[in-house]
Amino acid sequence: MAKQDRAIRTRQSILEAAAVVFDERGYDAATITEILARAEVTKGALYFHFASKEELALAVIDAQMPDTVQPAAPTSSSKMQELVDMGMIFAHRLLDDALLRGSVRLTLDHGSTNLNRSSPFHGWTELHTRILTEGKERGEVLPHVVPADTAELIVGAYAGINTMSQAVSNRVDLERRATVLYEHLMPSIAVPSVLARLDMAPGRGARALAEVERMRKSALDASEADEAEELGAAPAGVA
Amino acid sequence: MAKQDRAIRTRQSILEAAAVVFDERGYDAATITEILARAEVTKGALYFHFASKEELALAVIDAQMPDTVQPAAPTSSSKMQELVDMGMIFAHRLLDDALLRGSVRLTLDHGSTNLNRSSPFHGWTELHTRILTEGKERGEVLPHVVPADTAELIVGAYAGINTMSQAVSNRVDLERRATVLYEHLMPSIAVPSVLARLDMAPGRGARALAEVERMRKSALDASEADEAEELGAAPAGVA
């Protein structure tokens, strides 16, 4: 168990070191030697987890996708707020999350190599399509909206303001740009009563992320309580 | 005169060859040798026009900006139609204009080198800001719109759908994506009476480009007529 924990931690530090090197140098110029030096692990440890620079880059790219540990947005009163929160949290995390920064750099940087960068585009598009479809079922979305088309637009447009923010301000102004994006798009997506209640202001990213943390903590507490209960109930359960 | 014409043609074929090589290989991997082979010019001719690979890349990047020969959009009944036309024409031209394709590839591809790619972002943002400001003066634009913010959003979002279209379909679906973009954004920008008259449908790019060509041709005819008149008037003008 402790050994497995250590392996997970080692894998994570390799990923984070690789993300920093990819972010600074780009995929082509990054070297395994530099990643090893930064991660402070042995060559053997790195190749135990990742067979090649390409595999490492693909793992860094995948790390931007939300999972059960780090959901994309807090559960909210409206699906449309969840949609906005995904982008606002992303902009906020990008300021100081090295793994996310490396992932974004690799995704938006179509260099000379044939690294497959399309998975985050597909992943985010699917996620947006699902939320828009659920929002539509709940009557939050205007009737003309085609969830898949609008999802692709949001993901593509967001990638663009990200690229531009990178070029102009090293991403410092991304959250303000995300606010401008949602203020322009949401009136064409959400019904007025939902639109009027949306929080799309700068600062929403930090607030929503704090909610995600609270959700995660209380889910963790609940599962620990369940576990304790199960342990307590076990003797009775033994036939 | 003929010599100058030849120099302009040579410069143009070098630019086009370079654009194709940059589009296929990216900036870092592209070589002067490959560009020379494709342009079928001598090394001397190339270095007469461009001092370095960087200077060549910057000239290719700049080639996407509209000029007097190739304006961004036809003069239209509304400034908002001009705004839409800029993007629809761009998407249409990108299908078969090698110079534009190379320029876009270099602009959106922030590789490991320090090539300055920001000039098209600034150039397009200025152009959009000017048209939005003129539209506002004419009462075509909703009161809350801040021209500079909305301009940056459109340019950034457009760059993103371009990147995504490149990744997913080698840019074949860019015009459809541009339509979806404008259909979502324009209701937050244009007043309803202008909005109702906008043509944002796929195919608009080709139609608008044909109008630009007609404009250019009639301007050319007019200037030739002026010239002929001047020539005819010359003897009388000699004191």
UniProtKB/TrEMBL annotation, chains A, B:
Keywords: DNA-binding, Transcription, Transcription regulation
Name of the protein in its database record: AcrR family transcriptional regulator
Superkingdom assignment: Bacteria
The HTH tetR-type domain, residue ranges: 8-68
GO MF, any single term: DNA-binding transcription factor activity
Organism: Streptomyces olivoverticillatus
Region (Disordered): 220-239
DNA-binding region per Swiss-Prot/TrEMBL record: 31-50
NCBIfam families: ScbR_bind_reg
PROSITE patterns (alphabetical): HTH_TETR_1 (PS01081), HTH_TETR_2 (PS50977)
Keyword Transcription regulation: yes
Coiled coil regions, renumbered to chain: none
Pfam families in UniProt: TetR_N (PF00440)
Signal peptide boundaries: none
Record carries keyword Translocase: no
InterPro entries: ArpA-like, DNA-bd_HTH_TetR-type_CS, Homeodomain-like_sf, HTH-type_TetR-like_transc_reg, HTH_TetR, Tet_transcr_reg_TetR-rel_C_sf
